[in-house]
Amino acid sequence: MKKILFLMPDLEGGGAERALINLLREFDYTKYKVTLCLMYHRGVYLDAIPAQVHTIYLFKNERSFFFRKAWKRYIKYNKLWPLSFLIKCRLKKHYDVIISYLEGSAAFWHNIIIDRGKRNISWIHVDMLKYHSSHNAYRNHEEDEKRCYQKMDQLVFVSQIAMENFSKLYDIDVPKCCLYNVISKSDIYKKASVGGIITKSVFTITAIGSLLEVKGFDR
Q1: C or N: which end of the chain has fewer Cβ atoms within 10 Å?
Q2: Alpha-carbon gap, residue 149 to 176, rounded angstroms
Q3: Would the pLDDT of 95 be above 80?
């Protein structure tokens, strides 16, 4: 049975978090032993994690005492060993595959335990050339982030444009591919069958999402 480890910051509401839950629901758990490691114990999707998935929480939140002290050592003095010690104490096993399912902090933590995986994959969900929010996860993203991705065996992108623009940002000789997010058709049909009161008399488009520039509501 192959052992797979997923790394995520948390399961707060978001597209990547929802996509991960959908992906975890598709596994054949007679063939795979899946572990999900969350940096912080929080999120609206915690109850949606499949029962077969072993879940590990590193910290309660960013205000956790040991995390704050270790993070300060890294940011102020470029000392990574306190953070490395904390995560390696919780993740002592080795895995066939380790997947950081989000850019930023998940990829940063992945870099610390990369020797624990026979194969290491990082999943990128945004166009990092236009919306480079992940730089906050690194002391020096131009060096540290690029070095992190260089160590991976595979980079996965959720769209062709995200993959193309990543190459413009970082010239990295690592195999890349595009895989669209998993969508649960059965879940959509189930919710659609519930029905509701429709009061619109003309064709109407409804969009749901956070009011951030990256969501493109102006379009």
Answers
A1: C
A2: 11
A3: yes
Task: Report CA 179 to chain centroid distance, whole Å.
Answer: 14
Domain residue limits at 68: 2-215
Q: How far apart are CA 98 and CA 5, in angstroms?
A: 5
Burial 84-93 (b: 16+ CB within 10 A, else e): bebbeeebee
- CA 48 to CA 188: how far, in whole Å? 15
In this prediction, residues 6-26 reach a mean pLDDT of 91
The stretches of 32-104 forming alpha helices (DSSP H) are: 65-77, 81-90
DSSP code at position 13: S
Give percent of the chain with pLDDT exceeding 70.
96
43 Ramachandran zone, left/alpha/beta (phi>0; psi -120 to 50) = left
CATH assignment at residue 147 = 3.40.50.2000
Residues written for the chain: 219
Choose among 20, 64, 26, 62: nearest CA to 45. 20
What is the distance between the alpha carbons of residues 166 and 164, in angstroms, rounded to a whole number?
6
How far apart (Å, rounded) are the C-alpha atoms in residues 48 and 62? 23
Query: 3-class DSSP state for residue 62?
Result: coil
- Please state, rounded to an integer, the average pLDDT across all residues of the chain: 87
Q: Number of folded domains in the chain?
A: 1
> CB neighbours of 171 closer than 8 A, spacing ≥ 6?
none
